[in-house]
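Data card: per-record layout.
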Amino acid sequence: MPSLRIPVGLNTMDITGKHDYVAKEQYENFEKVIELCGFKKELTKDYWKDVQRELDSVKTNVVIVRRINPFSPNQKLIAFFSERLISPSNQFNVIVERDKNIAKAVTVLLNSIFFLANFFNLKEEFTGRFIDIKFYDLYMMKLYPTEEQVEKLVKVYEKFKNKDFPSLTNQLDENFEERYKQFWAKERTKQEALAEIPDIKPNEIGYEFDMAVAEALGVDITEEDLIRAYQAIVNDMIITRGLRKD
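The structure for this 246-residue chain is written out next.
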């Protein structure tokens, strides 16, 4: 059965055909496989029925990563869509939306600056690498599209679905690493840098995507507005990363 094990390294919103597989029933050489895995417990009588029931309960076209490491070069997108139903692992949050157009629209919103701005505003204080995405946070964001927005957001999805997005930090600022190092070097050594890093420089794909989403939503946003939003998130990420304990 089509599945998705981990979100690491996925750089396109459309993951159709990029899924993993999970066994839903006993197969040839199964006993040999579990022996090689070192699994010694005897399976219960209803094991495969329970597996099938669990897989069926999480079948979906759209998934969201359950935990974000915003500083990782492998953290590129938040939500993904598959034309084929998949049953993902517990590394993902599942949104059960049977209307594929709405699912695509939701995928677009959850990868946009509108999600990130809400997320960093609502996130709980954390000291590690990962931030949990909780369902009550998603409810509070109210990012489900209206009926009239869906068609426009689907057009955005179709335009960007197979674009390779860079890491989250680079989407917001291609100078993020240098800016981070300079900020904390100044804080910890009290020495001024020889040359200041230029203003925020968002990645071209991420910027075009966010502007397209804003237009689809009917939001009147300027380039300066968007840059200020990126700046606020980048500042938050620099502070958080520098204070984390791992």
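Known properties of this structure: The CA atoms of residues 56 and 87 lie 7 Å apart. The longest strand covers residues 79-86.

See the next section for split statistics.
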